[in-house]
Amino acid sequence: MTPSKKFLYLCFSFLFGIFMGSFFHTYYIIYFLIIISLFLLGILWKKKHVFISVFLIISFLFGYSYVNYKLDNILKNNIVEYFNSEVELTGKVVKTPKDDLTIKKAIIKVDDFKTSILITTNKELNYGDEVLVKGELIEPQNFNNFDYKMYLANQGVSGIIKNPEIEIISENHFFVFDIKKRAEEITLKNLSISKAGILNGTILGETDNMSSELKQKLGFTGISHVIAISGTHIVLLCFIMLSFLKYLRIDRKKAIIITFFFILFYITLIEFPASAFRAFIMMSLVLLAELLERETDSFILIVLAAILILIINPLALIYDLGFQLSFLAVLGIIFFNNYFKEKLSFIKNDFLNDLVAVNFSAQVFVLPLLIYTFNYISLSSLITNILIVPISTFLLIFGFVSVLVSLIFPNLAFFFYAPLSLILGYVLFIVDKFSFMIIKVDNFPLIFLVLIYLITVFIAYKIKEKRFEFYI
Known about the structure:
The structure is a single chain. This protein is an alpha+beta fold. The protein has 3 domains: about 5-75; about 80-170, CATH 2.40.50.140; about 180-465, no CATH class. Helices cover about 65% and strands about 10% of the residues. The chain has a 5-stranded mixed beta barrel. It has a two-stranded antiparallel sheet with strand order 8-9. A hairpin with a 5-residue loop joins strand 3 and strand 4 (about 115-120). Helix 2 (about 30-45) runs antiparallel to helix 3 (about 50-75), helix 11 packs across helix 12 (about 300-310) and helix 12 (about 300-310) runs antiparallel to helix 14 (about 320-345). The relative contact order is 0.08.
């Protein structure tokens, strides 16, 4: 067994431990597996794979224990003793407050407890502000088959205070988030709220200015991934930065280091969404491999990226849809992209062939989870992606440049935002015309989802072994 295979097996064992630990919250299984490990070590001492077998169990135990440790810190924290009571808490705003057009939501890291709370308020708050909060602390409640409690736990939140009294103890301004806030304001000043919402979503990862109706239409047309910050954004920005530095005749190694810090600054600005963070890790490893003159394996890179993200937040595996969709899309591209490119060879234009193949391959793994989660199938997804994706690259590049120039030279904003308005108008037109093309899928059983993914993985394996064929 090669070292890389051993590494992958250990990673998968760790991932499986997190997966199981997310559903089972008893520690008896740990004692049982420790006994099994010792038993294997005793009877297989001289066997070839005894140590890797034991390490696989240890890796599983670590993943299982780690996710339960994180859950205990959030769901069994001492703060839960104060549910349904009036409390007075001091803490710090640890994420940029979100505004859903009706009310602001902010996450406060509480000083006296190793956890956070969610507050809803109309008060203007900024990242890093130290605040005193007074109000009734309540336990998050699930609704409409949505596990809201675990959704908040994934963000480190234990409880909620609605419309509390807030006293700002000290204000803190971080220049990164001040830049982001200023960029949003310029966009809102120069575009309609719908167009600004799409541009801010594409460039800054902020969808606060989008109405729930627009968000729903984007989902119905299957182009939410175009608007949301994705791995494609990071890869494209990385490529643009490297090309620009090459044009300036900067040494390749220095260009790689500069690009790394530029992308790090950018994902800090957009506050580390799962898809962007995954792409950042993968691109960082690719750039590091180039610096060290080493070859890379895309599958190992994506596994490494997943492990690093889950070490930071193991709850993301089960309770972060963005994390799941991001990795599933990349897996689909890794396993199916070349296959679809070959089968779509009748599309002679290379760009269009790549575009359709990437969308097909990404959807193979993503579509079942989307249907299970949102209970509908978008019939227009392929059409809208063909109509929107080609201009999304231009929208990203020109939008990024427009925002940057407008920050430096506000008086020139109009000259950039006028053409951007036309492009965004086209996007809204497509979204509006195709959003009705959906089929409702109610009561999609979990067992069906599992079976679909088992079959898909089997097909991916057969394709890799070149022992599978179907015709399109």
